[in-house]
């Protein structure tokens, strides 16, 4: 189990460039299975979860060539479907939640898709019903081996239909879209997710020859085609990383520039950090954050009541940033209620912040009230264990602002979502070592 040692309390400075978006990569990489022609993808993040998926594709028979840093070509012209029933696949697929998105493309192109029950972050249940209900509505037969926790869907030919999703699941929508593009006839998906990463997938599929309309809305109409071709695609920067670096700059009173952020795809993120009192300046496609030497003050509602920050499906605030926002609020002037609506257990890292001296009241599994210190007292260094990707980075930001040397164990969780994070932080002045 890897460990970070962090000497906190230092101001940082300079420029940092966000990696390619992890959540987009997991969708886009699975889409290469929809064609036997070459697909080239750029700005792929070099992180554990993405590398695991690339290895899975290679084991499936996809021909993969590395073109340069973050750039790969994929050609799925000789897929080994027998691998899907192997013990090796059952083991490898279980360790990666994003592997669920292999099912839609495999079902669409080959008439069958299998997956072991995926693992991933320990952030509560994330059910797969939306995925499989969509496949069933397209005409697939579903089976589930309870002893092996192994799912399967099969169909001679998928047929387009109307469906109203029970939740606006990003991965569920992506999976159903990838199945529907090769289905016979027209598919209408209402209550579809419309996150920028889902929009990126739809735009890429359209360049490959798909016919998807309504991209960016919650009503997608897909006219099935017989075949898709190759394309080139460049992934967006990771908006969760961008939010992480904004929070880091504020907590360490640092002057930072975040490069090439794709401002127009950030949605509520700049607005929400602005409500925490953090100054952001747009410079071209960069975010400039001045050193907040006098701290930052949370805005109350216009009637004076306490601000609530909650997650919601796009264009609401992504749930992946709530833990970052909670940490940043610990040094604000004022109070805020953090309400995690979309997932369970994501606030249970708060006990580590309490050990560091933060003033946080965990109201219930979904809500926490934060009373800011206004930098009148610093967080105290401590030893902690990263429970998942996002909480791990939130604790890392807390440690970088704290007085003394902190230790974070189980950093493999952080590596699953952040590329060479210790090297990149050292480049802007952080005192962090991997041991």
TrEMBL record:
| Record keyword tRNA-binding present | no
Record GO biological process:
cell division; cell wall organization; peptidoglycan biosynthetic process; regulation of cell shape; UDP-N-acetylgalactosamine biosynthetic process
Amino-acid positions noted as binding phosphoenolpyruvate in the UniProt annotation, renumbered to this chain? 22-23
Q: Active-site residues?
A: 121 (proton donor)
Q: Give the enzyme class.
A: transferase
Q: Which GO terms describe its cellular component?
A: cytoplasm
Where it sits in the cell: the answer is: Cytoplasm
- What are the alphabetically sorted keywords of the record? Cell cycle, Cell division, Cell shape, Cell wall biogenesis/degradation, Cytoplasm, Peptidoglycan synthesis, Transferase
Task: Please tell me where this protein is predominantly located.
Answer: cytoplasm
The record's listing under Gene3D superfamilies reads: Enolpyruvate transferase domain (3.65.10.10)
Read off the InterPro entries from this record. Enolpyruvate_Tfrase_dom (IPR001986), Enolpyruvate_Tfrase_sf (IPR036968), MurA_subfamily (IPR050068), RNA3'P_cycl/enolpyr_Trfase_a/b (IPR013792), UDP_GlcNAc_COvinyl_MurA (IPR005750)
EC number(s) recorded for this UniProt protein: 2.5.1.7
Pathway membership of this protein? Cell wall biogenesis; peptidoglycan biosynthesis
Where would I find the Enolpyruvate transferase domain in this sequence?
7-425
The residues that hold UDP-N-acetyl-alpha-D-glucosamine are 97, 320, 342
* Top-level division of the source organism's lineage: Bacteria
Query: What are the recorded GO MF terms, alphabetically?
Result: UDP-N-acetylglucosamine 1-carboxyvinyltransferase activity
Q: Which SUPFAM superfamilies match?
A: EPT/RTPC-like (SSF55205)
What does this chain do?
A: Cell wall formation. Adds enolpyruvyl to UDP-N-acetylglucosamine.
Give the family per the record.
Answer: Belongs to the EPSP synthase family. MurA subfamily.
**Matching NCBIfam families:** murA, PRK09369.1
What is this protein called in UniProt? UDP-N-acetylglucosamine 1-carboxyvinyltransferase
Q: What organism does the record attribute this protein to?
A: Maribacter aquivivus
